TrEMBL record:
Keywords: Membrane, Transmembrane, Transmembrane helix. PANTHER family: ABC TRANSPORTER PERMEASE, SLL1107 PROTEIN. The chain crosses the membrane at residues 20-41, 53-75, 96-125, 137-155, 162-183, 230-252. Residues 51-246 form the ABC-2 type transporter transmembrane domain. Its main location: membrane. This is ABC-2 type transporter transmembrane domain-containing protein. GO terms for molecular function: ABC-type transporter activity. It comes from Candidatus Solincola sediminis.
Length: 257
């Protein structure tokens, strides 16, 4: 456990020294503050628009951090040759790999906590509304990011960081549209397209289930996101994250370094 903590904290320290982390975080915060300046923000329910746009920006931020850090963490150590010093010591490869993943998760937790404070304070100051329900949306954003991180880390064992980013983007898009386009493709088109769509439909997670931003932004007026819903989403994320982590550790343990 101590080694996992050491590797995890090294990822946090590395993120603190990378300009891209601060750029992504600063741009997200800046764009959240600029939301009320949009022309459409003067029409309709401004509070709902503010929350939905802020959560949308946070989703993009978590997505970008997940695929960049997941796809470059191991490659960065290999480029700096620190990975060779680590694996030459009495350290199991799975400890290194899992520690890296936990470190990225910790960075995401810290970042999302900061965004929660920013959005919460901003909404409270502008609309005089304290909205703890935002934490539900940020939690599901974190769950989705954990799946993306585990996938891109698995891909990074043998693929370059640029290819890993592409894989992460492709996975994100396909897993979000599977409920609509893939389902339609399964029931229409030529046999080859139906087989391919069916394979992707049943093997990929439905990431759209984690998108509760609109529901939370509108105060859960249509339906309430309860504890059971969050537990089911957590189990779903844990299952796919666990599968990708297991495959990643399996591949990494057999890679020549």
């Amino acid at each position: 456990m101590r080694l996992l903590g050491v590797f995890a904290w090294s990822v946090v320290e590395d993120a603190m020294h990378r300009k891209v982390f601060y750029i992504i975080l600063a741009l997200t915060v800046l764009m959240i503050f600029l939301i009320p300046l949009l022309p459409s923000a003067q029409v309709g329910v401004q509070l709902d628009l503010m929350r939905e746009a802020a959560l949308g920006l946070t989703t993009i931020m978590a997505f970008v951090l997940a695929i960049i850090m997941g796809g470059t963490s191991i490659a960065r150590d290999a480029e700096q040759r620190t990975i060779y010093n680590i694996i030459s010591k009495p350290v199991q490869r799975w400890q290194y790999y899992l520690g890296k993943f936990l470190g990225i998760m910790l960075v995401l937790v810290i970042t999302l906590a900061l965004i929660f404070i920013v959005i919460g304070v901003f909404v409270l100051a502008k609309f005089r509304v304290f909205d703890p329900g935002l934490a539900k949306a940020l939690f599901t954003i974190f769950l989705e990011a954990s799946i993306l991180t585990s996938l891109t880390m698995m891909a990074s064992v043998y693929l370059s960081p640029l290819v890993c980013v592409f894989v992460g983007i492709l996975f994100y898009v396909v897993a979000h549209v599977k409920g609509g386009y893939l389902y339609d493709a399964m029931n229409n088109g030529n046999p080859i397209a139906r087989i391919g769509a069916g394979f992707l439909y049943y093997i990929l997670p439905n990431l759209e289930r984690f998108n509760i931003n609109e529901t939370i932004a509108h105060g859960e007026s249509v339906f309430r996101v309860g504890l059971l819903d969050l537990i089911l989403l957590t189990l779903m994320a844990a299952a796919f994250t666990g599968i990708f982590l297991y495959l990643g550790i399996f591949l990494f343990s057999r890679r020549d370094l």
